[in-house]
Amino acid sequence: MNARLIDLLTAEPVHVGDYVDMLGDVDEPTTGLAHRLMRTNFVPRIYERYWRPVLGRVAKGLNGPSMADEHRFVQENFALRKGDFVLDVACGTGGFTRQFARVVGPEGLAIGLDSSTTMLTHAVALDSAPVYLRADAVRPPLRDESLDAVCCFAALHMFAEPMAALDSFARILKPGGRVALFTSGRRTWEPMRTVDTLLGQASGQRMFDRGQIAEALRARGFTAVVERYAGVTQLVAARKGE
């Protein structure tokens, strides 16, 4: 499976082992406390069972979507088939990537991309069906129009250049390909809007306005945009124009 991933790369990997490494000794710069914690040895051990669900519930609110709802949102908007090629950007320990691998089967390719060695090591230990890539999440080193779907959940707001990441997603998706995002969505009512901004600054997370991501996707040629908001989060899906 790694050989099929390597065929999609736009540069030679630094190392190929349990995962394909494009960064070597180079680390992406962190954007704040939340981003730095992702690179520790502790967080990957609790990421899927405690860290992501608990922090997600705080951000989404008591009536917001569950983790299962997030997975359903992706399933409904991707409509993946056997043989599809799908990328999970900032995959963490591979919760979504493993789901994609089960759907696309051995005929397809499910790629989990992250810059954290600790996250990827844990992901590989959990399941070897997907393939994993350590690389720049903002500029994935993958060929133009090579993928059927790109997922980026709970990460875009921690990227130093989130709009450049959206440019990359548009580049690597085939015409008609799908993107699904879960990121911050600042509330519109003051003074909560100010509170959201201050909390984002304290943790090193960008607070996007509601509608901002949808607008950015449309500006990049995406259509059929779907938006859902809960608490200080937004779920957004769209299709790249033919």
UniProtKB/TrEMBL annotation:
Domain Methyltransferase type, first and last residues per copy? 87-180
Q: Does the keyword Methyltransferase apply?
A: yes
A biological process from GO: methylation
Q: Which domain of life is it from?
A: Bacteria
Q: Which GO terms describe its molecular function?
A: S-adenosylmethionine-dependent methyltransferase activity
Arranged from A to Z, the UniProt key words for this protein are:
Methyltransferase, Transferase, Ubiquinone
Q: Which PANTHER family match?
A: METHYLTRANSFERASE, OS06G0646000 PROTEIN
Q: Under which name does UniProt file this protein?
A: Ubiquinone/menaquinone biosynthesis C-methylase UbiE
